[in-house]
Amino acid sequence: MKILFYFICINIVFSQQIPYFSEKRAMDLLVAQCDFGPRHPGSIGHEKMKVYLTDFLNPLCDSLFVMHEETKNPFNDKTMHLTNFFARYNIDSSVRFIIMAHWDSREFADRDPILTNRKLPILGANDGASGVAVILTLAEILHKHPVANIGIDLLLVDGEDQGVSGDPESFGLGTQMFSEKIPNPRPDFAICLDMVADHEQHFLMEQFSLMQAPDIVDEIWTLANDLGYSQFEKKIGYAVMDDHYYLYKHAQIPAIDIIDFDYPNKQINFWHTIQDTPENCSSESLKSIGSVMVQYIYGKDLEHAE
Fold first, then answer.
1. CATH number at residue 172
2. Per the domain annotation, does 49 fall within a domain?
3. Per the confidence metrics, is the pTM higher than 0.70?
């Protein structure tokens, strides 16, 4: 009955003017991140991006938590400095959820087919910048069109992509630390956006997402299909130990992952290679995921109207 009511609300929202998600703006924000260069902890690009995110988010949200953390680099055991950004909207609402992405890029292109490239850092246009671009665009939308009945939290986590292959707990480091100090009011669930901008977009239903928050998966995939985005396929996909996995494991917040792990397809994959560049990303793909998020946010806001 709750899901039926939600989609009745969505039909009402369709008949009203709701915020427009600009694919051009999102793509510009993706490129702007990549212009800083690789953004792994300790790099010049990482430091520049940290300042950029602080300056970008501060005037747009009701409350911004900039969380500085220290941990061990999984590759060399040296101290690694991480920063998580937690931007909150309608802070007094106890009904709220997170939209999250990781903003760091991987230090090593360890999946590159050319062996000599494997010690180079990746640019992280899709794996990192794409989810952040959608979230930064949402930050501007939420600032201009405040939600009235729910709270929204935008979470940009660091240190997601610095792990050692074969050691899952060495990934998602920023999320693991964020899970220990989540400010009140506590979010009800989370939606993670990762690798959402490739040209051949296909979103299968990630396995941990179906285990952790099956109702949220069904809501979003049904909404996306109703909007005409057939790339949200109601088929079971990979099991991915992404930030959503660690948020649920360490904070017990149900979380889902919207991810297209075949980048761009099953025959070719630019994941963790030096080919993860803006040229291999699509503004139309950003448009689809961003539009679904906007419709979902404002549909939920209407659902909780008194």
1. 3.40.630.10
2. yes
3. yes
